[in-house]
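for the recovery benchmark. tokens below, seq after
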């Protein structure tokens, strides 16, 4: 699970670089405004949250991944718990996607 740690580190870097936003409202706003390059939803998120983001990302053609626990995502971002986050930088998104494909993080990519 080394890739999992690398991925969480990348999320932390993206957050500190102000290239990632978290929380349901901010993630939704990022996707709808066209700034989002990738959405990550926690595997622990409610079915309603997963369905909402899956449908929204399919409509706006943004890749979506299910990865990690709420605690892991929140900790990586320096917060409490986070069920969803949006990466707004193409470089970070590409690196994270490569790690997720190797890591086997549940992939729901919309094209």
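predicted aa per position
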């Amino acid at each position: 699970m080394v890739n999992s740690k690398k991925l969480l580190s990348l999320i932390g870097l993206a957050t500190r670089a102000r290239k990632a936003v978290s929380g349901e409202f901010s993630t939704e706003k990022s996707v709808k405004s066209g700034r989002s390059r990738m959405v990550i939803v926690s595997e622990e998120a409610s079915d309603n949250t997963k369905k909402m983001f899956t449908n929204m990302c399919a409509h706006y053609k943004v890749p979506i991944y299910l990865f990690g626990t709420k605690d892991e995502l929140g900790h990586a971002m320096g917060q409490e718990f986070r069920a969803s986050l949006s990466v707004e930088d193409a470089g970070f998104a590409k690196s994270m996607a490569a790690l997720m494909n190797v890591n086997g993080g549940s992939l729901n990519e919309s094209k």
